[in-house]
Amino acid sequence: MKTKKVKNVNGTLNGTLIQQFGIDGYKLKAKEKYMSKRQLNHFTKILSAWKEQLENEAGKTVDHMQKESNNLADPNDRASQESEFGLELRTRDRERKLLRKIQTSLNKIKSGNYGYCDETGEEIGLKRLEARPVASLTLEAQERREISDKQYSDIR
Predict the structure, then answer these.
(1) What is the pLDDT of residues 146-155, one digit of tens each?
(2) What pTM, to 2 d.p., does this model score?
(3) Is 9 domain-assigned?
(4) Long-range contacts of 141-148 (CB under 8 A, 24+ apart)
């Protein structure tokens, strides 16, 4: 029995992002330096594949909307179509923001800053980066930010 592959909010399919692109998990060599050239190549490959997939999806959306944008006579059909297009556009907007994060990560690889926390300068870690290649904060810094954001939003 085949399992249905469903996209989640991050644009990935069931399983991990790297599995989706047929990329093996990174195998750390003994005494390998953090963010070595080999590691940076690994993450460049993941980020580039993800970027390409999102750009292809955006192209499909434009084609789909151009082909399907009929002037439907029935108001219910028109409302359904507009609702579908709205959902599709919101998804693409999230993906557009994600593309920006992917490009930022690729730029960080080029500049030598990839893999280090924007707030603390600490190593983010290979496992976290494989799970979320666009991560810019360590898990601890991300948790602190979320707690702070929640406290701030509760005040309003």
Answers:
(1) 999 888 877 6
(2) 0.74
(3) no
(4) 141/117, 145/119
